[in-house]
TrEMBL record:
This is Mediator of RNA polymerase II transcription subunit 10. Component of the Mediator complex. Component of the Mediator complex, a coactivator involved in the regulated transcription of nearly all RNA polymerase II-dependent genes. Mediator functions as a bridge to convey information from gene-specific regulatory proteins to the basal RNA polymerase II transcription machinery. Mediator is recruited to promoters by direct interactions with regulatory proteins and serves as a scaffold for the assembly of a functional preinitiation complex with RNA polymerase II and the general transcription factors. It comes from the Eukaryota. Keywords: Activator, Nucleus, Transcription, Transcription regulation. Its main location: nucleus. GO terms for biological process: regulation of transcription by RNA polymerase II. The keyword Transcription regulation applies. It is found in: Nucleus. It comes from Diaphorina citri (Asian citrus psyllid). One of its GO terms (cellular component) is mediator complex. One of its GO terms (molecular function) is transcription coregulator activity. InterPro entries: Mediator_Med10 (IPR019145). Belongs to the Mediator complex subunit 10 family.
């Protein structure tokens, strides 16, 4: 047993920089597989990614619709805006 502990003590420098999230220990305390923590984190990240992607798409559609409406209401001002922005703000056709 002593030689085993000495071997562990020799190897501690190899794992000294590894940080384990506290949630992994919670998984172990609950009798769950710690590998499920990684799976759950990835699933949460994918869900959040889909939510953010949906918000980005909604903002892009809103911007495009707003440019169409503004070009009808304020054509001169929108032309100045496009000139300032470099002309990359062309309204989409619906």
């Amino acid at each position: 047993m002593i030689s085993g502990l000495q071997e562990i003590d020799k190897l501690k420098s190899q794992v000294q920089d590894i940080h384990v999230p506290l949630e992994v220990f919670d998984y172990i305390d609950q009798g769950r597989n710690p590998q499920l923590y990684t799976k759950d984190c990835i699933e949460k990240a994918l869900t959040k990614n889909e939510q953010v992607k949906g918000k980005i798409d909604a903002y892009r559609k809103f911007k495009a619709h707003m440019l169409v409406e503004l070009s009808g209401a304020f054509p001169n001002e929108l032309a100045k805006y496009r000139a300032i922005r470099g002309g990359d703000e062309t309204p989409p056709s619906y």
